[in-house]
Specification:
Elements lengths: L2 H32 L7 E6 L2 E6 L3 H22 L20 H26 L17 H17 L28 E6 L2 H23 L4 H18 L2 E7 L2 E6 L5 E5 L3 E9 L1 H5 L3 E4 L5 E4 L3 E8 L4 E5 L3 H13 L1
Helix pairs in contact: 1-2, 1-3, 2-3, 2-5, 3-4, 5-6
C-alpha cells in the first residue's frame, strides 16, 4: 500500500465511517431522550393535507440506526473491503488495495446522508414532543430545503476533506498479433464470464437492503413504499441482466451478450483498429462492476478484476470486457480485422 493510498483510506475512515456514525449516534441519543414525550402512534409521514402515516415512536430509531447506519456500513464495506473478497476467473491478481474517486465519493455521500437523516430524525420527533395526538404535529415541509442543504453541504465538505488519489498507471501492453491462419481458415473463440464474488456480495446486499426498506414502508402503509418498490424492481433487473455474459470473437468481430439476452454489444471486424489483453481493477479504474465508464473514458462490461480484452475501434473509442484467455480473443479479432 502506497503512502498516498494509506492517507486516502485514513481520511475515508474519518469522513465516511467515524463522523457519520457519530452523527447518527448523537441523533439517536436525542431521539431516545424524547421518546417518552412522543404520542403513540407517532407521525412518520406528512402529505399535502398533513400527517398521513403513523407508526410506533421507536420507528424513528429503527430508521435512523438501521437505514442511516446501514448505508454507512455498506459504503464502507464497498470502499474498504470489497477488494479482499475472492475474484472469479483464472486471471492474475492485481496488487491491492487500490483507491479511486468512487471511494472518495462514497465517503462524502455517507457523511451527507448521515447528517441529513440525523437532522430529519431530530426535526420529526421535535415537532411531536408533548402532543397527545400525532395528527396535530406541525407540517415539516418547510424543513425539506434544510434537509437537502445539510446533505449537499456535508457531502461537499466530505469530498474536500479527503485527498485526491491518482490511479496507478499500468504498463501498456503491445497490440495483440493476429492469429496465424491460412487463407481458407477461420477462427472462432467463445467464453463466458460472471461477475466477481465480491461484486455478487455487494450487489446482493444492496438488493436486500432496498427490498427490506420497501417491505418496512409498505408494512407501515406508507405510500412512498411503492416508489422504493419500483426502485427495487429496477435494481433487481439491472443486477440479474448483469451477472453473466457470453463473449464471442469471430471473423464477424466481437459480440458480447448478457446471459439474459440483454444488454448486448457488437463491434464489426471492419471497425476494429487494434486489440490487446490487459489487466484491470473494477473499483479503481471503473468505479464498480457491470457496464461502466472508466476514469479515462473507456467503456465496457467489467465483471471482475484481472485479465480483460480491450478493443480500440477505428473511431478511437475503447471497449473493455473482463474475460479469461483474453490474449487469444485479441489475436482472433486482430486476424479478423486484418482481413
Amino acid at each position: 500500500m502506497t503512502p498516498e493510498i494509506r492517507r486516502a483510506r485514513a481520511a475515508f475512515w474519518w469522513v465516511g465511517v467515524i463522523l457519520p456514525l457519530a452523527l447518527i449516534a448523537l441523533a439517536s441519543i436525542v431521539v431516545l431522550a424524547w421518546l417518552p414525550e412522543m404520542p403513540d402512534p407517532a407521525a412518520i409521514h406528512w402529505g399535502p393535507d398533513g400527517v398521513d402515516g403513523f407508526a410506533p415512536p421507536w420507528t424513528f430509531l429503527v430508521l435512523l440506526i438501521g437505514l442511516g447506519g446501514g448505508i454507512v456500513v455498506l459504503f464502507a464495506f464497498i470502499a474498504l473491503f470489497s477488494h479482499r473478497l475472492p475474484q472469479r476467473g483464472a486471471a492474475a491478481p492485481i496488487p491491492q488495495p487500490q483507491w479511486s474517486a468512487t471511494a472518495r465519493l462514497l465517503g462524502a455521500t455517507s457523511l451527507g446522508i448521515a447528517g441529513m437523516m440525523a437532522t430529519l430524525a431530530i426535526v420529526t420527533t421535535a415537532v411531536q414532543r408533548g402532543l397527545a395526538d400525532a395528527a396535530d404535529a406541525a407540517d415539516i415541509t418547510p424543513w425539506v430545503p434544510v434537509f437537502l442543504v445539510v446533505l449537499a453541504v456535508l457531502s461537499v465538505v466530505g469530498w474536500f476533506l479527503q485527498p485526491k488519489t491518482a490511479v496507478p498507471a499500468r504498463p501498456s501492453d503491445a497490440p495483440a498479433p493476429p492469429l496465424p491462419l491460412a487463407d481458407h481458415e477461420r477462427a472462432v473463440w467463445m467464453r463466458s464470464v460472471s461477475i466477481a464474488r465480491s461484486g455478487q456480495i455487494v450487489l446482493g446486499i444492496g438488493v436486500f437492503f432496498a427490498i427490506a426498506i420497501t417491505v418496512l414502508l409498505l408494512a407501515q402503509g406508507i405510500a412512498a413504499g411503492w416508489i422504493t418498490a419500483a426502485v427495487s424492481l429496477l435494481l433487481v433487473v439491472v443486477v440479474v441482466t448483469g451477472l453473466s455474459f457470453r463473449v464471442r470473437a469471430s471473423p464477424a468481430g466481437l459480440r458480447v451478450r448478457s446471459a439474459a439476452g440483454w444488454p448486448r454489444l457488437a463491434i464489426p471486424a471492419d471497425e476494429i483498429a487494434s486489440t490487446r489483453s490487459i489487466q484491470v481493477d473494477p473499483f479503481a479504474e471503473f468505479g464498480g462492476w457491470g457496464y461502466r465508464i472508466g476514469t479515462d473514458g473507456r467503456r465496457g462490461f467489467v465483471l471482475r478484476a484481472g485479465e480483460a480484452l480491450e478493443v480500440t475501434r477505428t473511431n478511437g473509442r475503447v471497449f473493455v470486457v473482463t474475460v479469461d484467455d483474453a490474449g487469444t480473443a485479441a489475436s482472433v479479432l486482430a486476424a479478423a480485422a486484418r482481413r
